[in-house]
Amino acid sequence: MFDGRLWPGRADRPRRGPVVLTAVAALALALAGPGITRADAASGCPGHRVQSVRFATGTLQVYRSGQYACAVTLAKSPGRRRQMSVSLQARGARAVVDSGRFTRLAGPVKVRSANRCVRAVGAVSGKKTATGGILC
Prior knowledge:
- It is a single chain.
- The longest helix is centred in the N-terminal third of the chain and has 16 residues.
- With 136 residues, the protein is α+β, with helices and mostly antiparallel strands.
- The strands form 2 sheets. A 4-stranded antiparallel beta sheet has the order 1-2-3-6, with no helix packed on it. The chain has a 4-stranded antiparallel beta sheet with strand order 5-4-7-8, with no helix packed on it.
- It is built from 2 helices and 8 strands.
């Protein structure tokens, strides 16, 4: 006999959906932790920012995380594609370069920088800047 319920036997079970979703959201926030900031997410570089150099058409940002350094070049006004590049070189090693026509950022590029100075160079639309030796 039909009693009007679409799923017989389920009306007396407790609903677990909202509780499970809340627990999953809390776990995701706990795993993300305080170490992830908007700058990290926007740049793609882990760690903390150690230097930021503004120039006419953008900003060069250098980050450090453990024994690694990471760099990106951000366009001052993102939108249209233009020539952009970022280069990061640890002393005594080859430079790691990301170059091309991008809308927002070039990079991230990452090098092992344990106990070595690094030099970063960023360019947007023909204008460029460099850091000199940092993280020495």
